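Researcher: Quick test of sequence recovery. Tokens follow.
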């Protein structure tokens, strides 16, 4: 583990990597990636409902650079970014080996909602969570995949059942 202070270029690379990571949904199903944002600011992570992009906006540049000078934290960030980059660059996926006919022809998945993560409130229940899990699995398999859904402008409606129905 590197113990001397990071250079300006190293800091810039880590900050760029964190921004790239936060803007990709991969972190929503990778526990170690989520822990990076929680370690960066536990208060912001909790108050901003586990939203990585919001955490990076909330944390000052000074605080971010200070946290990244901690050798253990910087090592954790490097490790997560290394795995994220490998995931993004993976060419030898299940789909590449078994579904070559789909290359350039994405699977269209229609669902009323997709439950990907709590920071994207576009699911109200079990089927939305299942659709989100299908989207995550498609990504892990390297399948070309497009999720088509609804987005309620006024939020979700509340449905209740009373004694009569």
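Model:
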């Amino acid at each position: 583990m590197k113990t001397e202070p990071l250079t300006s270029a190293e800091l810039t690379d880590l900050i760029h990597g964190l921004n790239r990571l936060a803007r990709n949904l991969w972190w929503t199903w990778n526990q170690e990636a989520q822990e990076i944002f929680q370690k960066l600011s536990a208060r912001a992570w909790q108050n901003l409902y586990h939203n990585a992009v919001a955490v990076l906006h909330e944390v000052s540049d000074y605080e971010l650079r200070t946290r990244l000078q901690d050798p253990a934290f910087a090592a954790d960030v490097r490790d997560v970014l290394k795995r994220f980059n490998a995931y993004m660059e993976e060419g030898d996926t299940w789909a590449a080996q078994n579904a070559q006919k789909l290359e350039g022809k994405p699977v269209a998945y229609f669902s009323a909602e997709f439950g990907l993560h709590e920071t994207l409130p576009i699911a109200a229940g079990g089927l939305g969570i299942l659709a989100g899990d299908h989207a995550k699995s498609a990504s892990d398999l390297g399948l070309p995949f497009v999720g088509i859904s609804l987005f309620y402008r006024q939020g979700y409606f509340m449905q209740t059942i009373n004694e009569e129905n």
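The first strand starts at residue 107 and ends at 110.
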